[in-house]
Amino acid sequence: MTNLDTFDVGALPKPNLPDGPVRALFDELHALHHLAGWPSLRDMAKEVGCSHTTISAAFSEPRVPRWGLLELIVEELGGDTAQFHDRWLAASAGTPSPVVAEVAASTAQEPVPPRELPADIAGFTGRADELAELDRLLGTNDPGEMSIVVVSGTAGVGKTALAVRWAQRVAETFPDGQLYVNLRGYDPDRPVTSAEALEGFLAALGIAGTAMPQDQAKRAARFRTLLAGRRMLVLLDNAESVEQVRDLLPGTPTCFVLVTSRDTLPGLVARHGAVRINLDLLSPGEALALLRRLVGARVDADPQQAEALARRCARLPLALRIAAELAAARPRATLAGLVAELASESSRLDILNAGDDEFTAVRTVFSWSIRNLDPAVALAFRLLGLPPGLDIDGFAAAALTGTDVDRAHRLLNALTRAHLLDEAEHGRFAMHDLLHAYAIEQAAELAEPERQAAFTQICDYYLAAAEIATTLAFPNRAPTAAPPVAALPPLSKPAEARGWLDLERPNLLAVAARSPAHAGRMSVTLAAYLDSGGHYADALTLHQQALAAANGAPAAAATARNQLAAILRRLGRYTEARGEHALALAEHRETADRLGEADALHGLGVIGWRSGRYAEARQDLEDALLIYRELGDRAGEGRARHSLGVVCRRLGRLAEAAEHYAASLIIHRETGDRIGQGHTFNNLGIVHLRLGNYDEAADLYANALEIYRELDNRVGEAVAMTNLGSTYHALGRSGDALELHRRALTICLEVGYRVGQADALRGVGADLAGLGDYDEAVSSLTDAVDLGREIGDADALLGALNDLGTALTLAGRDDEASARFEAALAMGGDTGDRYEQARAIDGLAQLLHNAGKLSTARERWAAALELYQELGVPEAAAVAERLAAAPLP
């Protein structure tokens, strides 16, 4: 048998590159690989200590690898590292860094055009006039105005069928894609919000995971930006109101928007220029034609009874299809018998109210349909009125019905054949909103013990499945006691688990919203997933629901408060976060929960160092560390050591910080905490950046980036990019740095990570100053100062003040610069950040020198030099040179 790995490596293609130093580097690397006998990439990865993917990319991707990686590869292949370093320097000169090139490439990639239209309706009949009108409106589309068409009509009249039929016919007219969403505007449980619909659209357009903006307005803006100039069809199905639709309008004349609604949506017509098509009942002839197409010869054999059947169905397409399915399932029954059966029930059933429309008597047809089902299938339909979510798969259906997965699929398929359920992608099933309303009514008629048992089973299933998925995706988190469930989805890989969580997120959140008994455990279970994915708005709602569900019980309330505080911190709401952690600490101590106490102390420590209260933070973190060690909680110990490293670094104790980070990294590797490893690489990189070890810092940031991208942790990716940009800035590569800082800023804005926004703004400003664009630099840095002050983040604010002072100095605005440096000096003294104090003193010395106050300038530089030398940072050499060059007074 062929060794596929070795064979693949031997045939590994070179990147397609023009002649020059970059190509020469790759030619030399491939030649060395050949001389070494084409060793397996997988074996090389093990020896080098990185992933197979990273090694493969170094050989085949058209970008210069970072030197640290290339050096290890060359050593492993027995090559001359000095020779390769010379070639690497030549190839790197004038080319973007690997990270910048990768960012630019990923930004430039166009996603596959979305093709989201549902399948056309089988047996579609009639509506020739409406289809022709839609064709006319498409053909007369004013190139300067976006076309919006509203198809309105009563429930079950066939609005969706018409819209989908027409959309499928004209799909090729929209080469950039077709977007579709069922807004479930009249769902009695929970319509789809505009924010949720936008999330789906943006995901279809290539914005996924934590790249997704959290704020609805930002999602809408991003949606309009992505569709600008594109020729796309947007189908908004089952809208309830103009408010639900407004943010889903592209805003570009190249798009065509088709909306279906029971409401006439007059605001959309008046304000946005929409054209309305009112869809009436099928005509008697169309109703008969539909029955004939679905039932066959019996319609022509007994036309009078067929007409009576159409009347009983109110000539509504949905009701006619259900009636036709029943007729087809009972080939020996006469149409007259079916009509009589339906008539006998109509007197005992109310009219299903759907607004002011008079033709809404479809409950009779639904009842008739249900009573002709197998009893087990009918019960499954009633039970489907209980789940808190909007759709369901076979595993969840098995939990709901108390059967195995195969039996659940048979029940779902039977309901689908009866047109009482629709099968969507990913093996999921959902109902028309009228049928869902009817299922909820039917579920309410079940005996209370049966109804409650089924509801508890489905909620238990979602909780247990979520626990399995999050444990797989985040192995370092402490598992919760999930309820026993017979059948769970077969997840075996972290990526599969994250995919399942992404797919089921709406249903999992709905469980917490509908079931207070499950809210607390769902909050704990989903906390790591929601945080890592940047789903901050969802996390905030979930943890608030968990706190409300605790109903004052100290243990449950304290756990929810810790989760809530962590998200408040992400959102830059430090004062609220500190308050919640403090309350949690008191409640955990009241219940003698030592682990919870340690978590609360750790949270307070993080808020402390974020706020610049370093001494207080260090005490809280050391107390937390003692408890984690006492309990043998290695994961907690790793987090506490990492946070202590941050405190020491900000106090200028760089060697002590590095020790904490090294210990933290060992523990994170031991516990399998990949995110923790990424955080530690990132912060250890800051230590090396501060010490002037730029190559080491860049390598550490690259390691962090690899982990964050592996986990789709966009917040971590943005932070690492910001720090890598700062490294490039220190090396004088302001152009590369600016590109990274702007990309990081975009990510932080998308996910709502405010301290990251402040840091990225600061980086952008410093880079612009380095490029000589002082006005824009001052503007960006002023924004960074304002944001840092608003959220109360000491490091972001203090660094931005000093950077702003520097930019103002370069712009010749010395008085303004002096005010910023003085503010930074005072704040640095309050917090104990000696590095930023030294920067402020250095900046003030330069201003004094500019003003000709040489004696005072030298005194200030001497003070800055003393601090820099104590810290062991490279700025000491630069200040020493300035002192030596400054003339004596």
Write a concise keyword list for the protein shown above.
889 residues, mainly alpha, five-stranded parallel sheet, 68% helix, 4% strand, disordered N terminus
Secondary structure topology:
Elements: H1 4-10, H2 21-35, H3 41-48, H4 52-60, H5 67-76, H6 81-92, H7 98-108, H8 128-139, E1 147-152, H9 159-169, E2 178-182, H10 194-204, H11 216-227, E3 233-239, H12 242-246, E4 256-261, H13 266-272, E5 275-278, H14 284-295, H15 297-301, H16 303-312, H17 317-329, H18 335-346, H19 363-371, H20 375-383, H21 394-401, H22 405-417, E6 422-423, E7 429-430, H23 433-444, H24 448-473, H25 494-514, H26 516-532, H27 536-550, H28 554-570, H29 574-590, H30 594-610, H31 614-631, H32 634-650, H33 654-671, H34 674-691, H35 694-710, H36 714-730, H37 734-751, H38 754-770, H39 774-791, H40 794-810, H41 814-831, H42 834-850, H43 854-871, H44 875-885
Parallel strand pairs: 1-4, 1-5, 2-3, 3-4
Antiparallel strand pairs: 6-7
Explain how this protein is built.
The protein is mainly α and 889 residues long. 68% of the residues lie in helices and 4% in strands. The chain has 44 helices and 7 strands. Strands 2-3-4-1-5 form a 5-stranded parallel β-sheet, sandwiched between helices. Strand 3, helix 12 and strand 4 form a beta-alpha-beta unit. Helix 30 runs antiparallel to helix 31. It is elongated and about 115 Å long. The termini are far apart. The N terminus is likely disordered.
